[in-house]
């Protein structure tokens, strides 16, 4: 009796009250359209908010670096240390977070998520600590800028996967039905802030894991995420209205000459061949880091030192007053892609057009082919080296930008060797850059969704046919002889449990 009296004086049990509130929430939301649909919308919205906050933080850090570098004008030595030590320190901080707090937060994260979707449990990769460290580490990596030349897509897929895992547990608690696996599938879709490409990319990368019944929820979650991200960009003043993420001015009356279809096909084959070289170098560096005893020791005990040294080396090579002046090193990743998609001919710019994109790549009077060639030659091995950094990093957008540079070089070359033709003044090197970006990134990842990604990012449906043609041809070249894709190579290198579809790739490659 005394125990019951004391319980009455203590008040209601918090567990009972929470259960009652969850039951009421389930009844209210479930009566409308099902609790899981609200969770799908919440997944897209939360992912978009995290992406927006990350982009905002990265923009502030990049502007701080640019401001500091500009205010040191006239002091070359101080500018050099500012240019090199800033990204080196950021990479060291990102690597320190991963090494000391959560080692599973390094890398892309896509191979590990695919492994979990295959039915294997990797609990550390879905922890709250991992999500927090991955977010901070990726912010530092992106703030290092185009010097390190790493992207966002892969790690952010991993971050949103962790968000989806917790939402799935919440829905399971409220609805008493297991939705964890479905939410792991949903998390792949809102990450590109695009309504359709995120879904198709998830279908291709996950291959047999994806069921048709998940199409509608995935598109719904992706649409919620894309709309939220665009609205946040408008409200912050980054965009004036809801439009394509990369604004272009391609002609719709005469987008390309019919004969250029052959050139686009050649570009697709060329991008496929270059992707084979890139993937070979990537597989070689992965094998080297797993077999060389010195690298094994460094990447085991001295990750922070290694990351800072590699970042310092890359920053030294991209210093604007040395080789960096031929690589447009002062441009951010977004500015690089925007300048490469410029529709004017840099070799013979028309009157009344902005010369700003050209001036960022070369000085007046110098050939435009030199900086593009130097950019392609240097970024090839620099990106392969950056892939060894033990920090959160994405590799899709660097491949997309590299392909855009390949296409831009071919477009400028065609404009140079065909002067005086009727269609020469209408030739658009930016269209070649768009086609090259989709073809090369698709060949590297063995996917076709970059074709739609290129169209949706720029809003240029006029080049949809050349983009799809080049992406198909590039994939055909890259997939020959059962070569593994970029993500497949990482899965094999890390000895992650993989699907039977990788068995042939594993047997044909020396891992």
TrEMBL record:
Membrane topology field: Multi-pass membrane protein
GO MF terms, alphabetically ordered: voltage-gated chloride channel activity
Subcellular location, record wording: Membrane
Regions annotated as coiled coil: none
InterPro entries: Cl-channel_core (IPR014743), Cl_channel_volt-gated (IPR050970), ClC (IPR001807)
Keywords noted in UniProt: CBS domain, Membrane, Repeat, Transmembrane, Transmembrane helix
Residues annotated as transmembrane: 37-58, 132-151, 215-235, 261-281, 304-323, 368-391, 432-455, 461-478
GO CC annotations on file: plasma membrane
Gene3D superfamilies linked: Clc chloride channel
Highest taxon above the source species: Eukaryota
Designated name of the protein: Chloride channel K
Organism: Takifugu rubripes
């Amino acid at each position: 009796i005394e125990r019951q009296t004391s319980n009455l004086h203590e008040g209601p049990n918090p567990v009972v009250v929470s259960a009652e509130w969850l039951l009421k929430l389930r009844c209210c939301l479930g009566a409308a359209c099902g609790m899981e649909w609200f969770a799908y919308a919440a997944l897209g919205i939360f992912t978009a908010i995290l992406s927006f906050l990350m982009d905002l933080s990265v923009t502030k850090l990049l502007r701080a670096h640019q401001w500091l570098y500009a205010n040191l004008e006239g002091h070359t030595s101080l500018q050099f240390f500012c240019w090199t030590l800033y990204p080196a320190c950021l990479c060291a901080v990102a690597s320190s977070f991963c090494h000391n707090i959560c080692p599973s937060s390094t890398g892309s994260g896509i191979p590990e998520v695919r492994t979990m979707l295959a039915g294997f449990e990797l609990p550390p990769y879905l922890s709250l600590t991992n999500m927090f460290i991955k977010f901070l580490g990726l912010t530092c990596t992106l703030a290092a800028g185009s010097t390190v030349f790493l992207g966002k897509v892969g790690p952010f897929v991993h971050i949103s996967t962790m968000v989806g895992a917790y939402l799935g547990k919440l829905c399971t608690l409220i609805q008493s039905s297991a939705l964890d696996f479905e939410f792991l599938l949903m998390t792949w879709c809102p990450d590109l802030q695009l309504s359709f490409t995120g879904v198709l990319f998830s279908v291709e990368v996950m291959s047999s894991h994806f069921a048709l019944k998940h199409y509608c929820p995935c598109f719904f979650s992706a649409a919620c995420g894309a709309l939220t991200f665009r609205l946040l960009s408008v409200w912050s003043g980054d965009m004036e209205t809801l439009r394509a993420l990369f604004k272009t001015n391609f002609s719709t009356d005469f987008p390309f000459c019919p004969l250029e279809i052959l050139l686009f096909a050649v570009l697709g084959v060329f991008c496929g061949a270059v992707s084979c070289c890139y993937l070979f170098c990537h597989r070689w560096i992965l094998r080297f880091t797993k077999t060389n005893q010195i690298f094994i020791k460094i990447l085991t005990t001295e990750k922070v030192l290694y990351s800072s040294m590699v970042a310092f080396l890359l920053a030294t090579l991209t210093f604007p007053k040395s080789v960096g002046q031929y690589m447009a090193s002062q441009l951010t990743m977004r500015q690089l892609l925007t300048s490469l998609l410029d529709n004017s001919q840099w070799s013979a710019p028309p009157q009344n057009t902005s010369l700003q994109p050209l001036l960022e790549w070369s000085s007046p009077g110098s050939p435009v082919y030199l900086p593009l060639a130097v950019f392609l030659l240097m970024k090839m091995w620099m990106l392969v080296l950056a892939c060894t950094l033990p920090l959160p990093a994405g590799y899709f957008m660097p491949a997309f930008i590299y392909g855009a540079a390949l296409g831009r070089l071919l477009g400028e070359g065609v404009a140079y060797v065909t002067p005086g033709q009727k269609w020469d003044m209408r030739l658009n090197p930016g269209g070649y850059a768009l086609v090259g970006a989709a073809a090369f990134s698709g060949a590297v990842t063995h996917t076709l969704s970059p074709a739609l990604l290129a169209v949706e990012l720029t809003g240029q449906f006029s080049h949809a046919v050349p983009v799809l043609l080049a992406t198909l041809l590039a994939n055909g070249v890259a997939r020959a002889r059962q070569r593994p894709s970029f993500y497949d190579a990482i899965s094999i290198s890390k000895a992650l449990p993989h699907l039977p579809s990788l068995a042939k790739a594993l047997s044909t490659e020396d891992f």
